[in-house]
From TrEMBL:
GO terms for molecular function: isomerase activity. Residues 11-20 have a biased composition (Basic and acidic residues). Residues 114-271 form the Thioredoxin-like fold domain. It comes from the Bacteria. Keywords: Isomerase, Membrane, Transmembrane, Transmembrane helix. Residues 1-20 are annotated as: Disordered. This is Protein-disulfide isomerase. InterPro entries: Thioredoxin-like_fold, Thioredoxin-like_sf. It comes from Leifsonia aquatica. The chain crosses the membrane at residues 39-64.
């Protein structure tokens, strides 16, 4: 057996092969580490993207939920209630979720006035118009020569009146939903008992419910609806739309005010305390509109 200095060691070829194998193993280990780093980075990116998408999704969902969960009354799909008689409302589904109202389309026959009023129950000018023209509008409906579309809005809320404009419009919307054929009566009752705009604190919910009861409107559903202000957001949404509408803006002031009155799509700009003037305007608007086609107001923008 060979020993000592003369013993045989690894050849040059063996050392070269060993070096190559070591290099190969190092390359494989480096590749594995790079792959692990790539997986970690990709996972982090995916988690980050999912987190962003989740946040965006929550924001979008919250926005949709906030609008789609709004309680809207039945029989006010245009944002207002349409009456063909003082005791007969046009029935309709509620506005769906956060959808926009559907403007009313009326046929033109050369004899029927389609009267639309945007009003605030705290507005003294609205009270003047109501007091002056209520009886003749009621008679026009009885004669079959007019329909009346009432849009309650709230532009006169204050801390003094305890947001009476919104509360009264929401209460009226409760009646539109549950007892629509009595809407004309409660509309008149709210104006007949209008609090003073400057010093009044607004009617309480109990006082409004008493007025409704005296007008023949009473039910647990309406009581709960008024007390819970179920349709307050509906009123707020319709008010924002009215204020933003260029079609409803007063051409003189450039802004929205109440009462805003249209007949067959034509704005009334006369006095609020002159019944004869309003009656003449109604007759002229019917004639101007003609006896064919239809009128939709507000028009689609």
């Amino acid at each position: 057996m060979a020993t000592g200095r003369g013993a045989a060691g690894p050849t040059k070829r063996d050392r070269r092969e060993e070096a190559r194998e070591t290099a190969r193993l190092m390359r494989e280990e480096a590749a594995k580490k790079a792959k692990r780093r790539k997986v970690i980075v990709q996972s982090s990116v995916i988690v980050g993207v999912l987190a962003v998408l989740t946040i965006v999704g929550l924001i979008v969902y919250s926005g949709v939920s906030a609008s789609s969960n709004v309680a809207n009354p039945k029989n006010m799909i245009s944002g207002g209630i349409v009456l063909t008689q003082a005791d007969q409302a046009v029935k309709s589904a509620a506005i769906s979720g956060g959808d926009a109202p559907t403007p009313t389309t009326q046929k033109l026959d050369g004899k029927t006035a389609h009267i639309q009023i945007w009003l605030d129950y705290q507005c003294p000018y609205c009270d003047q118009f109501e007091t002056t023209n209520s009886d003749q509008m009621k008679q026009m409906m009885a004669d079959g020569t007019a329909t009346l579309e009432i849009h309650p809005v709230a532009i006169l809320d204050s801390s003094t009146n305890n947001k009476y404009s919104t509360r009264a419009a929401a209460a009226a919307s409760c009646v539109a939903n549950y007892d629509p054929d009595k809407f004309f009566d409660i509309n008149s009752a709210l104006f007949a008992n209008q609090p003073d705009e400057s010093t009044g604190s607004g009617l309480t919910n109990a006082e409004m419910l008493k007025l409704f009861k005296d007008a023949g409107v009473e039910s647990k559903q309406i009581t709960d609806c008024v007390n819970n202000q179920t349709y307050a957001q509906f009123v707020t949404n319709r008010t924002k739309e009215a204020v933003a509408s260029k079609q409803l803006a007063n051409p003189t002031s450039g802004g929205f005010g109440t009462p805003t009155v249209f007949v067959n799509g034509e704005r009334y700009q006369g006095g609020f305390t002159d019944a004869t003037q309003f009656a003449s305007f109604v007759a002229a608007a019917v004639k101007d509109a003609g006896d064919s086609g239809s009128v939709t107001f507000p028009k689609a923008s």
